[in-house]
């Protein structure tokens, strides 16, 4: 942190502030010291939010110190030292120290922005500072309630009523009851959390986030909240906001004028009144319970609403925009419906139970609870107009006759809300935005004094931005998007030609803004019809040939998809993309178009509001009337002046720490009056070229220069701080930087620090965080390829010593980034984690450096590198990241002499498809260099975000998201109650020192209430305690022994990365093939499948056919696929598959995407708990036997011959292929002991989703009695191959169901050895593992 002194206040700032930031903070401090209001304009990209937070909190710290001193002095503790300290603090805190009252509570900071996403950004900015105030983030029940019963209610009013009633009941809301416990949780007391994190914390603690925030509100130093909670007097009262002596900050305040008017206005439709009637009826019949307002009491409200609906439907409609009723008309209408000052207080009580929408409107008319007099309300109504229009029906048609109406009670004085706000005796109101100019008129509109003002400069230099007014197109047609000209086809065509020419020159992302959706649609339609000059293609096709075109949709879901597509295309290093958008649309508010996303912005017209819209016409009339009636000399805007200032510039100029062009394609911009409306920082950059050719030449020259500068930054940098070089971004001051660089060419070596740095590629020791703050220099490291870096479905697995070879890991990681699907690594977010095995920490550090070097935007990493494979998959899907890198060799042993692995999962959470893994392999064979950033050491132990320029690392709790997921999938209450009712039912979980240990403790102990002794080997160890983390009868022997010795009815073991499991109880071993079949059989009692149904089931080819019988019984599709989870993944992604499993202890479902051991164990516990409701005392064996009685038993066993030399293993398979191929005529029909061969094959699979064919997947041999053997190779080990022999014998004889597996299949094992000649070919006498 840096220290900066502004007006005697010492401010802790994350870095050396720019000059414009220093000035901005000085203005903030001045306002606070002077008890004044401030109007501060500072361009987008200059760190307004950070400056506001740091300056305000620094001043408040000084205020708190002076207040503490005042308390000490009041107790007679004064002396000369304290007097000196008092004078010093007085100078720091206040311009009028004698007027300060330190007996009052210290000022609360209310930090408001327009949206919760903007507030979340502000909270995250606060986390990056040195300040740790007590924070409260206010939101609605809709945003914060986690009670599913309340959430399911259809209306907001019904949800509010249900919530209030629940907390009054004896049993009440379980989440509300836990608030008092959760609020003293250290995390809640100390951590700064945004609204999403508060909800997550509430779910974790089973405590209501809504009431947690309310509990935190009174003690908060700073409260984050939306605009309307402050400017709406009724909302302030509802939220218990006391602004007395407070500091009120409106960030992004350019919308404050409209927000104030909206807070004191309403529009209400006949449909909404009818909806309120529905709410009343719903609350009468569904929501309210005995002891609350009953149905009879709600009848008067229903009658009043019906009368109101009738009165509104009979109002005369205003057919011209200038027509309206005076504001007082609203009282006449309401009185006819028996709503007046006498009846409103009683109706209000009823409306709080229902009809919330109408209540909000009536509060604006009457004041809260009728607190103001009728005379006062009539006086207030002078600021209003009442407009009545027809309500549109579906399809956009207007209703006729006495159909629906829209009554618009519009307030045209934003000062009404602002004056009411400041009347609460707040200390200061600070308004900040990138576009407030002209400040004088903005202040006039709000009708409060702003004695501190600033029109700030930008940090960008003259060579970073090009702003040009384009008056004519290439055909010399005037570019003018006025109402009379915008539909001229010649103008539209020439505008399209401009965009074609500019698109050829402008790299990366280009945003084109239109005044409205209608204008944009008309232009695009013309461009699709008209040919481009000298080209047979249409103008539109010519644009699309250069850049992929994205058109801003109106629908929110489509908008998110469109923006994602735009960003992906910009990031894929092609010609970029062009985004056609609308001023005042979603694109122009709060989105980040920095760097490549916004190389240029084209404005195709001055975005005035619709000239003939009734609200606009009436606003102009109101201002003109006010100007004529005014009796003071204060300047009041005329209607025309107001209209000229309504073009929304915020969000259109995004040059944050970057370079870019702004092209104003409308000749009206050259008018001096229009130029004066532009933000102050833009005006000095504006140029008016003499003709179109000059525009194009300047644009070409600008981007050539910027691109050259960016590419020529070298990899060895030494910047002398005494020369005052401040490196703010990748282009600014680039000429000064180049003077200090050597001649070695390294692309994109961009220093981003204000501290002198020395980068020496020969040094082995990495600089520490104190030596190299905020440095990110990207360098190219030469390398040579290694043979054999071919990943399978399970990734690349080798001995640790192989990965430790120079550049071996770096090569493979770079190959992954190079092979990533579009948009490639740049700008992406990836999840990183693993099972914590040996070499994981070193590998993660390599991944971090190479990710930064490849311009990855963010890495989400599990704390200490721990993140199970299923948890990683969940985070990828939940946070919609671009994929993840998992460091694991699954069930293989770990340690310096054993295995390590790296696996890439795609954005769907599943293993990378074969096309990607093949590409990784091809790249690895020819790799010549990798890119890495020279970063300081990163702590994997500290939760939170660490920022390095545009690169962010977020260290997360590895368990929170996963625990939240499984609690949604299973009936935790059912399972927990089962354990409570059956205290003798013991459980033993063995994590084999793999990644699942912490998860097991959190889920089985903390959530389900099992004793801590129920978990063993739960600490993840790099070498898994010297054991083999494979959950089978051999490697989980300690679990089996304890279960048998202690008569434990249920036990489970998990592998290294958490995707495999074994279930074993006293005298009961669950074969994985039976496990997946039983989960499918009982799927109807598992909450997730109750809601989704069973789409289909699947098994790997070697897995027994027990699942086939369940599928047939339930009449769902059964898919038999090769080994490899990717085949299940294709079916899941296509919506064909719900449950799947493989014989190698892997079971999963579409809700988790990967195989998941903990998921399978929870499924079994859910089944056991449910079965015990009707069959008390049922355990594993009871469920197995019930299943066998219905379907018969598949005796199944697998024998593994591990680490067989690959050449020898292939000889075994070649021999078997000959038997089922060329020699099948003599092999089929041959008898071996009691078994006669029926047929066989080398399994081939045609994927029903993509049609791909997978051949040579394993030898299948069928016998006439229904038995089967399968023999295949597995390459998941790091040394040689594993030969796996599967034997399966099916029986429908109940007398055989209790047989041990080995005796039942021994004859078939002998036959398999005789047929395969394994012992003869390999020289082995027995398998390494029998499962």
From TrEMBL:
Residues 7-305 form the Helicase ATP-binding domain. Its main location: nucleus. PROSITE patterns: DEAH_ATP_HELICASE (PS00690), HELICASE_ATP_BIND_2 (PS51193), PGM_PMM (PS00710). It is found in: Nucleus. The keyword Ribosomal protein does not apply. GO terms for biological process: DNA repair; glucose metabolic process. Coiled coil: none annotated. GO terms for molecular function: 4 iron, 4 sulfur cluster binding; 5'-3' DNA helicase activity; ATP binding; DNA binding; hydrolase activity, acting on acid anhydrides, in phosphorus-containing anhydrides; magnesium ion binding; phosphoglucomutase activity. It catalyses: O-phospho-L-seryl-[protein] + alpha-D-glucose 1-phosphate = alpha-D-glucose 1,6-bisphosphate + L-seryl-[protein]; alpha-D-glucose 1-phosphate = alpha-D-glucose 6-phosphate; ATP + H2O = ADP + phosphate + H(+); alpha-D-glucose 1,6-bisphosphate + L-seryl-[protein] = O-phospho-L-seryl-[protein] + alpha-D-glucose 6-phosphate. Its EC number is 5.4.2.2, 5.6.2.3. Its cofactor is Mg(2+). Keywords: 4Fe-4S, ATP-binding, Carbohydrate metabolism, DNA damage, DNA repair, DNA-binding, Glucose metabolism, Helicase, Hydrolase, Iron, Iron-sulfur, Isomerase, Magnesium, Metal-binding, Nucleotide-binding, Nucleus, Phosphoprotein. One of its GO terms (cellular component) is nucleus. It is an enzyme of class 5 (isomerase). Belongs to the phosphohexose mutase family. This is Regulator of telomere elongation helicase 1 homolog. It comes from Paraglomus occultum.
